[in-house]
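Teaching assistant here, posting this on the class forum so everyone can see the example we discussed in section. The complex has two components, and the goal was to see what a joint structure prediction looks like when all of them are supplied at once.
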Amino acid sequence: MSYPSRPTAWRVSLSGKVAGRLARMSWVDVVVAAAVLVGLYLLLRVGKGATVSFDPAQVARVDTDPAKLPYYAARSLLRMFVALAASVVFTLVYAYAAARSRRLERVLIPALDILQSVPVLGFLSVAVTGFISLFPGSLLGLECASIFAIFTSQAWNMTFGFYHSLITLPRELDEVSRSFRFTRWMRFWKVELPSGAIGLVWNGMMSFGGGWFFLVASEAISVSHHKYALPGVGSFAGTAIADGDLGKVGWAVATMAVMVIGVNFVFWRPLTAWAERFKNEQSEAADVQRSLVLDFVRRSSWPRLLGRLARPVGEALGRAGRVFGTDDQPLAVNRTRRRTGDLAFALVAAGLVLWGVLDLLGYLNAHTGLGVFGEPLLLGLATLARVVVLVAFATVVWVPIGVRIGFSPKLARIAQPVVQLLASFPANFLFPVATWFFLRTGLSINIGGMLLMALGAQWYILFNTIAGASAIPSDLREAMDDLGVRGWQRWRRLIIPGIFPAYVTGGITASGGAWNASIVSEVVTFGGTTLTATGLGSYISHATSTGDYPHLIAGIAVMACYVVGLNRLLWRRLYRLAETRYSL
Amino acid sequence: MAPGTTPGRTSARLADGEVLLAAEAVTKSYAGADRELPVLAGIDLQVRAGEIVALLGRSGSGKSTLLRCLAGLIPASSGRVTYRGEPLTGANPGTALVFQTFALLPWLTVQQNVELGLEARGVPARERAEAALQAIDLIGLDGFESAYPKELSGGMRQRVGFARALVVEPDVLMMDEPFSALDVLTAENLRGELMELWASGQFPTRAVVLVTHNIEEAVLMADRVVVLGSRPGTLKATFDVALERPRDRNAPEFDALIDAIYQVMTGREKDTAPHLPGRTAAEPAELAKRTIANTPLPQASVDGLSGLAEIVAQHGGGCDLADLAEELGLEVDDLLPQVDALDLLGFTVVRDGELLLTPRGTAFAGADVQESKRIFADAVLEAAPLVRLIVTSLRRTGGTVRAGFFRDLLAHHYTSEQVGEQLETATDWGRYAELYSYEAAPEEYALDEGGATLG
């Protein structure tokens, strides 16, 4: 491991160097060291809470003393980061397997595509019961279920991104690795991971932002007539909502805002700035990511010191990694053997899938009959209508605003980070406020549910429109000014084609997010009053809380079909159009 | 080359002249629509200890493909490659590659980049660093050890590429157009230093294979220049370069050799290309025999070929190709597609290395936009079979035809990449000639109203 050094050469023996460094420690070094120590201490204290034993009957609520909020925030953060770590490990292993094995690729990539479309929150009840039976009598089971929910919201996206960077590795880097006979271990750590690093970090940041929503949704949940709550900001808010205490909900919202901004400042910002070094470009870009925290840490001597200490470890790992063999592709391929292998693999895979499907259908048939799919299919139409209206409405409202912001560099600089934060702020935190509003005004939840779904989803459209608009070259705009193209003609000829690719990306994310959000926004509770809308989301939500697995499975399957169908029939086509026709 | 002993080499050192690397009847083809499309055909080549071999050819001659076959990076479709008599089963253990695009890892420092090959062999850190610093010193990179590639100029980056390859002391150094991404002066300087190093005997490799499209570069550096023909790549001719090093560009022998190679490369001596010379305006019989299979369109834009025609017209209707290339500061690869295109359309003929405008070509070069479009339309309809095919198909259907139709037809004879190139050229030419229009989104050709009356 190495850090960017100043362009001075430092080739002194290790021990002498360390001693010299320690003697010349500056206040920057002390601050950085202290910060690391405090972080470790907090981790220990907070982590201990996760393994305490509990009686499932008694954890329906948490103490809503605002003084406990910092502790709750730390517990929630710990969950988020454990889930992130799990997602990263999953990403590296899964994407690598898919990219390196021709046979696995055929199974893993379609599977990922489906997993991506399955509503995460539908999984939750299965996860909770599963993990509780895995760790009986310990809070760890609930912790794992919550972490699992966050993980499932992050992992697929990151995996797809990394897989894509693996299979599009520049040809010459592949040739460097093979012609210099790199070990597989070296190829991964020196070539493949670094060239995918920027994508991984940015994807991780976006997924982490989306993860807050699922953190809040998974900390307090009722499964099979049981209410469970984990100490955390989400459950704090949940309890406050059940009590109808808007003041305490306000405290929770404030804490959440501090957490989202704080993590961005001390973690993601430095990480994205650091990842700049993995840009595969031949010259220094003018516009680079900067981070105060990273600059501060770089000014201390810790990175270099740690780099020196870590080098022998890296060496030893590299030697150990030689067991994975050399990165080489045999020139001669035995075709018949390969074909036999392919056939055997296909048969086994197809057999397993078929067996699973038959088993599932048998299960559903025995419990409810196969007619169980009918109701969710119909209800899905209602939710589909909500999603469509929401995306259309958000487009009409936010695209003009986004274009205005994107065309003004000054506005964009201010607005972009704000919108990014709004997008990662868990919308379900604001649901109680909205519910209170519905109760007050008598607005039907069938209409209001749409508003709730929009709370989270709309930002993706705004965010991407800003990005698209600011990418339109200013000389094109000047040419339009010069030619006197304005009004609707300007929109038709310049703006809509210009922002189209970015808008489509935003639209896909927004519509996917809205489907997921329907599970929590079609049923809302505030201070003992429950409002239920007609739709697939409330169907799944109801099946979850009553532990009705056949209906739950049917609901999840149908929703996944709707999401996949909408993606294939609408978004993918728009995406292709954007790529071939409107790329600038 | 002085037989200095290089430390750390384990394999036996072969005497000069013994065969290190050999290709035996190597062919390479890629899958086409219904048959294999050859890129290399029947290549026999030996690389001996102590020599520099240049593989010279135009784009599409498969010279880089041949290099990668020799390096064991891609399998030959038939025939075999041996290293020290052993057939290759994977990446060649006795070669190291220098890339046109440098291919440095931007996240590693110069020293870390240079150490990569040794690290792959499991050389301990301390020895690795020593060897790397030695190589860095040898190649003139001292002081840049801890710099990152993006802080370096192109020339310095390619030095890192050389140091990285040399530090593993390969038997054969493989260079894939190593200087063509550099500016002229930098390339000249680096080439000179490298040849000094080779002549001084400090060079830690036994042989060099250089891929280039630059004739002068090949003659300056190589002991043997192997000229590859195009489509599929075959060994066209081999020239031994017996000139003293350092070589003098102004020596008459040097010039003579360059001229001789130029003639072979442009493929226009009487014995190798009987159908080309003496073609005034294109002969009807020969034109009728042209099909999309035997007459690929050269990769030349209308702007490019009419620009060249105008330049030739300014030279009084004829000029020496080699001189013209030099005058324009270009290399073979840059000019030949345009020459081929003019030739194909009957606007020029090439005789003894001279590019001469035909009467039709003179008219084309001198005409205004509308007139030149008309002349061009007549010429492409007559001489460019793919354009003719598109027009005929459109007339027959009377409406639009999908590009996929032509793509399928072409796929019988070309790789998918070449198919794309062919259609791109045909689209450009037909559009300029106002024969048909093309819409990119539905990928459809349609007759141009004005063009329907032509021909």
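For the discussion questions: The radius of gyration of chain A is 26 Å. The beta strands of chain A are 220-223, 226-229, 523-526, 529-532. Think about how each of these relates to the inputs above.
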